């Protein structure tokens, strides 16, 4: 008993040490300082440990755009070895004013360098924060000397963002340093922890819930905790998705509500600099906007979610067009899907998966339940699959073996995959609800825009390798080149040049 208590104490101490060492702050930079409402804002994020080194503790960073009135836009950036890139769509309804662009992780809850972003909306007179109307405005950068090209060469390997933008003559603001968004929480080394709360009169505590991305093998189990809280440890879901929330029980009856718990605070306690408007800025504001922006064919690292199906060799795919098509799922399963058997238990249809052959070569089916899915979404009421139109199904994937998911185990998997990969025409039971989820944003490099001539959020510079940048052929005017990031040891890299042609 003493040894057991000692082990528990050591575990708690080690857990505390791990949590403390995982604290980190995020440095964020954007492709430019000025936008029109409705544009896309591109950003690069680096997570840093307390000692300044690059931190790989988190698999996701949260990005928020804040005005003095609160959260205006948000996004999520996947981090690979402490670095990542992404984008935020600025709502067309944003009011003219200055905003703070912040990034943080759950492991640290702190922002390092914070960008000040000026947003202009010529379609409305609405203003946010302090907006000063003046006849003149100082523009110290206009006197800075310009050159035809710029070269940077580092003594140490680094990963940086590179931004070449048109100098529109609008004023820029000094970055703001240091703000705590939240107390450090549970680290997210593999990806976002998605928190969902169940509301209603029913008590589902102790049951298992599942979060599934239709058309993929991303399936995450989690127990339903007290007060209906469910926390899914994911490996990052990409883009805007409809995801399925499933309670792992075939006889769920009654209405319940679901609410996604947002990871973004509504407000931040940090002063936002004022924005000054002058009549001379009108033309520059009218021409803001990235038209004709081209996506460059550059592959950036991304985290590959582990496959739900641990051993693909156990899979057998029944391609239904290879067989005679039958009008009902019952006939389809009986006639040629030998790995699935349907039987009635207590008046309910139960599907089982073949798990072994006996000495005579006969298929044997276990009474333990199989996990039955439609387009990767668990369906615990097998009658709904039994009644589904087989003409919508392209194939049936069967996996033998035992699969442990959360507190459950299943004797085999059967995934009914439709042509559309989106559960077309399926009648959900009370155990399934669909949620809209904004996952991590895509990461791309761009070129050719009117304002942003070049943007790369994750460019690796080898030690001693010179990088020379010149404005593209045909570009006229004055440009701002910004190179921002960190060396592998965590040393900051920040260079800014004014170029002209």
Poorly predicted regions are: 1-21
Under CATH, the homologous superfamily of the largest domain reads Macroglobulin (MG2) domain
Q: What portion of residues belong to β-strands?
A: 35-45%
Helix content: under 10%
| Count of domain modules | 2
Shape: elongated
Q: What does the average pLDDT come to?
A: 87
User: How many runs of DSSP E, i.e. beta strands?
Assistant: 34
This entry's quaternary arrangement is single chain
List keywords for this structure.
501 residues; mainly beta; Immunoglobulin-like; Ferric Hydroxamate Uptake Protein, Chain A, domain 1; nine-stranded mixed sheet; six-stranded antiparallel sheet; 4 helices; 43% strand
Question: In summary, what is this structure?
Answer:
This protein is mainly β.
Structure description:
The longest helix is centred in the N-terminal third of the chain and has 20 residues, at 2-21. Helix content is 7%, strand content 43%. The protein is mainly beta and 501 residues long. It has two domains: 24-183 and 272-302 and 443-500, Macroglobulin (MG2) domain (Immunoglobulin-like, Sandwich); 312-427, Ferric Hydroxamate Uptake Protein, Chain A, domain 1 (Beta Complex). Strands 1, 2, 3, 4, 5, 6, 7, 8 and 12 form a nine-stranded mixed β-sheet that branches. A six-stranded antiparallel β-sheet has the order 20-30-31-11-33-34, with no helix packed on it. It has four helices and 34 strands.
